[in-house]
Amino acid sequence: GGPDAPRGTHGMRLALLDRLVFDILARRLQNDVSSGEAPFDSASVDSNSHVRLLDAPSVLVEGPPRHVRQSLEAVVTEFRRAEIHGFTQAELDEAAARVEATIASEYAGRHTRQDSVYADRYVDHFLRGEPIPDAEFSHELRMTLLGEVTVGNLNWRLHDRLGGAAPHVLIIGP
User: Fold this and answer.
1) DSSP-derived 3-state class of residue 113
2) What is the C-alpha to C-alpha distance for residues 36 and 59, in angstroms, rounded to an integer?
3) Is residue 138 helix, strand or coil?
4) How far apart are CA 92 and CA 85, in angstroms?
5) What is the pLDDT of residue 166?
6) pLDDT of amino acid 3
7) Positive or negative torsion for Cα 156, 59, 118, 101
8) The model's pTM
9) What are 1-49's pLDDT values in tens digits?
10) How many Cβ atoms from other residues are within 10 Å of residue 32's Cβ?
11) Distances in Å between the alpha carbon of 3 and those of 15, 31, 80, 140, 171?
12) 41 Cβ contact list (under 8 Å, min separation 6)
């Protein structure tokens, strides 16, 4: 999050909601790729974290330059569809299972973290006052927060995100 982003448990809850929302959006777009209906070749979640403290979760689509306009239209259409119709319980369940697997994997690897992970946490603590919980507490809290998420929470977070700032579009080409 940015310098004014919520901290502590509230900040973790919002970050988790962002992760789920953008995971679902990217999955929808990737399903279009799999069905042959997308003008792009792949879709995934990104963070636009080119600059520390930039709070900009996003969806990244990649495809041929000749389909830039159609790709942009597809992404905007999917965001608009989600804004109007929201998310489903099945989408939440699938995204939550993916996030739960990531949390479990991170917890399993807690004794083999790279120094850069610790360095990033210390920098975030210094710059933003982010807490540095131990692995057990972090795992337990993240699993608890994940278990509390509802479809209504996801829909609220998408509306909150879109209402707070216009979508950012980054097009990179040859």
Assistant:
1) coil
2) 19
3) helix
4) 14
5) 64
6) 42
7) positive
8) 0.82
9) 444 445 678 888 998 999 999 999 999 999 999 999 999 999 998 876 6
10) 16
11) 14, 35, 28, 26, 26
12) 33, 62, 63, 64
* Residue 155's pLDDT band (cuts 50, 70, 90): very high
Amino acid, res. 41: D
Contacts of 37 (CB under 8 A, 6+ apart): none
Q: Which residue has the higher pLDDT, 129 or 101?
A: 101
The owner of tokens 């905007």 is 76
Asked whether the CA dihedral 118, 120, 124, 126 is positive or negative, the reply is: positive
Cα distance between residue 140 and residue 113, in whole Å = 18
Rounded Cα–Cα distance for residues 109 and 114 (Å): 10
- Contact between 37 and 166 under an 8 Å Cβ cutoff? The reply is no
